[in-house]
């Protein structure tokens, strides 16, 4: 975990230290290739969200197993372990006083590594062992928060980035701090900016630290992703090089591997001149070189690296769970994926999706690199993308609602985008705290099984405090929506005149 020197802490824009990194850190990239038969250029898009079912058919789309394509623009994927270093804070809501835990969460990164995070979504409960994805600010509540840069400043100038607790206490004029009270004071200061909360640390030294951090905080820009590929989808005719796909990473060296079945498929990873690529760096432009005789198909380019995730990166739950912001990272495994699609002729779509918090929905983008129009139906409307053009359709999704888009196109193309729209800190604290014991960790910031220094070790664990009581009901509603969606698709099939080609 990287730390700042006391001298660095006095600069409002001092970059965080990322810890030592081995020379020649590598990124591994691999392709998986899917071949498809020729099919008419038509698209099926079915959308299922809690309380929202929409479907549409364009005949000729071949059913296929959906690609595993969770909506992730790249970076770390991790599992929440719980609140591990914390003390108590007092939250006041509607004139009522509630005592809650405040401090650092810990996550385990897929493939190796550990993350330390703070909450930036006070009124939303955590879920036990929730999955989290590294996410840009504009896809969370931080995107619309003018004080998001101040939160990153706090992260860079307090615990655990600053682990000299004696020096931190001197700077803040707080009196002696422990890891638990430093974490609590830092979390309280963050909540004041992330949720505009009336909250104070229970420990006097922690409260003085929170006040100092709040007062001193400057604004620091959002950090870029630990690893990404831009764009996330490309397409084009067989016999050409598809791309470029640009690597964005802090890793010093990138290693690129050819497809596992390169000898059979002939698909290669190259530079712009067609030279096979074995190494690359930040900014390298990769291409997917497809032989002219290759069968219509697609390839998933997955890039992996071991690096420190930048402090201040947001982490959003893959399911409904409070948004987190990174306070510290070990050397961790990060990844990103781009998809390449090709065909001999006709429409050749590249499909991608991204949350759009500003418009309360999900942007579905279709780019057509073929020589024929590409038509698709979404939310009851038909959209056409002419050859060589791109079109983005924003699908409305209610706040806090899950969505699941399956888009099927020519030649068995099948793409699934899943996620949950969590763009605002709009939970009701009064409701969330109803019935909670003042001395217990509340669902607002669920306690883990490992108590921090100075924190009680006999409180409820994450399973007892972190899961929302509404989870069974939500699961039931989701199941009902899936059943309704299936019924809607059956009805649509029955309404079609047999033998009619849409």
Describe the protein's architecture and organization.
With 502 residues, this protein is an alpha+beta fold. The strands form 5 sheets. It has a 6-stranded mixed β-sheet with strand order 10-19-16-1-12-14, with no helix packed on it. Strands 2, 3, 22, 23, 25 and 26 form a 6-stranded mixed β-sheet that branches. Strands 4-5-6-18-17-7 form a 6-stranded antiparallel β-barrel. It starts with 5 loop residues before the first helix and ends in a 7-residue tail after the last helix. Helices cover 17% and strands 36% of the residues. The protein has helices spanning 6-9, 148-156, 165-172, 179-194, 204-216, 262-265, 429-432, 462-465, 471-495, and strands at residues 27-35, 42-49, 52-56, 77-93, 96-109, 114-119, 131-135, 199-201, 227-230, 233-237, 241-249, 254-256, 268-270, 279-280, 285-289, 297-308, 314-317, 324-329, 331-343, 349-356, 361-368, 374-378, 381-385, 390-396, 402-408, 414-420.
How many individual β-strands? Answer: 26
Classify the secondary structure makeup into a structural class: alpha+beta
Averaged pLDDT: 76
What portion of residues is helical? 10-25%
What is the CA-based Rg, rounded? 25 Å
Helix segment count?
A: 9
Query: How far is it from the N-terminal to the C-terminal residue, by CA?
Result: 58 Å
Strand order of the largest sheet: 10-19-16-1-12-14
Main sheet attributes: strand count, strand direction, barrel closure = 6 strands, mixed
> Which band does the percent of strand residues land in?
35-45%
In terms of per-residue confidence, which ranges show pLDDT below 50 for 5 or more consecutive residues?
A: 1-32, 38-70, 427-502
Indicate the overall shape. Answer: elongated
């Amino acid at each position: 975990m990287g730390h700042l020197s006391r001298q660095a802490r006095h600069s409002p824009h001092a970059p965080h230290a990322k810890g030592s990194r081995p020379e020649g850190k590598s990124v591994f990239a691999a392709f998986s290739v899917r071949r498809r038969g020729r099919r008419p250029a038509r698209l099926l898009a079915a959308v299922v969200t809690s309380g929202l079912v929409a479907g549409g058919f364009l005949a000729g789309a071949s059913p296929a197993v959906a690609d595993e394509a969770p909506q992730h623009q790249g970076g770390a994927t991790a599992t929440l372990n719980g609140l591990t270093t914390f003390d108590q804070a007092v939250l006041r809501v509607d004139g009522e006083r509630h005592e809650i835990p405040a401090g650092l969460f810990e996550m385990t990164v897929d493939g190796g590594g550990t993350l330390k995070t703070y909450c930036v979504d006070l009124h939303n409960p955590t879920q036990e062992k929730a999955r989290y994805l590294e996410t840009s600010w504009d896809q969370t509540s931080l995107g619309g928060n003018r004080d998001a840069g101040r939160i990153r400043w706090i992260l860079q100038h307090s615990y655990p980035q600053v682990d000299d607790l004696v020096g931190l206490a001197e700077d803040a004029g707080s009196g002696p701090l422990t890891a638990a009270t430093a974490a609590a004071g830092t979390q309280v200061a963050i909540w004041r900016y992330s949720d505009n909360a009336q909250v104070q640390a229970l420990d006097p030294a922690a409260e003085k630290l929170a006040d100092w951090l709040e007062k001193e905080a400057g604004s620091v820009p959002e950090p870029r992703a630990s690893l990404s590929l831009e764009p996330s989808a490309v397409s084009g005719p067989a016999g050409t090089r598809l791309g470029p796909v640009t690597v964005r990473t802090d890793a010093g060296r990138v290693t690129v591997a050819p497809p596992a079945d390169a000898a059979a498929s002939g698909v290669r990873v190259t530079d712009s001149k067609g030279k096979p690529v074995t190494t690359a760096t930040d900014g390298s432009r990769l291409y997917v070189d497809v032989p002219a005789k290759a069968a219509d198909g697609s390839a998933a380019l997955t890039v992996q690296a071991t690096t420190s995730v930048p402090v201040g990166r947001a982490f959003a739950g893959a399911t409904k769970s409070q948004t987190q912001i990174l306070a510290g990272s070990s050397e961790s495994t990060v990844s990103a994926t781009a998809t390449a699609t090709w065909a001999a002729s006709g429409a050749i779509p590249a499909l991608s999706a991204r949350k759009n918090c500003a418009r309360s929905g999900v942007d579905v983008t279709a780019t057509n690199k073929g020589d024929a129009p590409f038509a698709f139906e979404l939310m009851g409307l038909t959209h056409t993308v002419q050859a060589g053009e791109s079109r983005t359709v924003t699908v409305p999704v209610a706040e806090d609602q899950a969505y699941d888009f399956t888009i099927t196109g020519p030649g068995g193309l099948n793409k699934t985008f899943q996620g949950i729209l969590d763009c605002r800190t709009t939970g009701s604290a009064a409701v969330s705290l109803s019935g909670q014991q003042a001395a217990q960790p509340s669902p607002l910031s669920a306690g883990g099984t490992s108590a921090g220094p100075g924190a009680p070790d006999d409180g409820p664990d994450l399973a007892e405090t972190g899961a929302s009581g509404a989870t069974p009901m939500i699961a039931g509603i989701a199941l009902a929506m899936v059943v309704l969606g299936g019924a809607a698709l059956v009805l649509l099939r029955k309404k079609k005149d047999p033998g009619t080609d849409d």
